[in-house]
Design goal:
Length: about 270
């Protein structure tokens, strides 16, 4: 596989951007997904000046890293969330990233019920134009009450029908929210698959337990085989979210990122 392998800095929730970049770089990764989730993990933000963003770019260079995406989760079901997300699209463009990541609803929980998706489809069409203007692609994550697996998300995005909007398939979310086996479900959305979150799973289906990649029960060997057969060439971004108690220490996060890198190497 010749895909880009990145790490979401949301893995370093509660720690600084410098700490995240240092750990990601030391583990062996060359690419990052920068977290810009308002009120949660704010390693970068739309309010940053050009000078401040240049300092971020300089830091990336110092660590030998390239930012390929911004994680800019914001609810697309509410006006305030849409306005914030447009700013995050512009942020991704300013950083030179190729992708902007979000879910459809709230970044955490997302228990909203979408009975008629026509408003959301129109919102996504408008956001696609904004992405086109900024040279980025919008990738919607398998997440939440409405769009937790690849099949339902594929059906939604087929109505949007834009090359600037695709799927970010989160392998563990497909279990936690979507109640499907990701190894097979990921093939049901292959035509719209633009981006993948490599996230592992332990415990019961809706237990918050997302260890280092390779430390859970998801069959990544099968996932890699399946997506390689489809010709998928997009990024794969590691995200470790630990348990509800958190990682405990920076050293534990660094180790999880290192373990993920070493495991991925065994699959290539």
């Amino acid at each position: 596989m010749k895909n880009y392998f990145a790490v979401s800095t949301n893995t370093y929730h509660g720690f600084s951007l410098d700490e995240a970049l240092n750990g990601i770089s030391k583990a062996g990764f060359k690419y990052v997904e920068l977290a810009a989730v308002k009120g949660y993990t704010e390693h970068v933000g739309w309010e940053m000046t050009d000078d401040e963003l240049q300092k971020v770019k300089d830091k990336l260079d110092d660590y030998g890293l390239m930012a390929i995406a911004v994680s800019g989760h914001s609810s697309l079901l509410e006006e305030d969330g849409i306005e914030l997300f447009i700013k995050n699209i512009e942020l991704a463009g300013r950083l030179g990233c190729k992708y902007i990541v979000t879910s459809t609803g709230e970044a955490h929980g997302d228990e909203s019920v979408v009975e008629d998706d026509s408003a959301l489809v129109n919102t996504l069409k408008d956001l696609a134009e904004k992405c086109k203007e900024n040279g980025v692609k919008l990738v919607i994550e398998t997440h939440g009450n409405n769009y937790g697996n690849g099949e339902v998300l594929y059906n939604l995005l087929s109505k949007v029908d834009s090359e600037y909007v695709g799927i970010n398939y989160d392998t563990a979310n497909a279990i936690f929210y979507g109640n499907v086996e990701p190894e097979e479900d990921i093939l049901k959305c292959k035509e719209k698959l633009y981006y993948i979150h490599l996230k592992d799973k332990l415990g019961e289906r809706q237990e918050w337990n997302f260890p280092a990649v390779g430390k859970g029960y998801i069959d990544f060997k099968k996932i890699f085989k399946n997506i390689e057969q489809t010709g998928y060439q997009g990024p794969l971004s590691v995200e470790v979210e630990f348990t509800s108690e958190g990682p405990g220490s920076l050293e534990n996060v660094d180790q999880a990122v290192k373990d993920s890198y070493e495991y991925i190497q065994t699959l290539l």
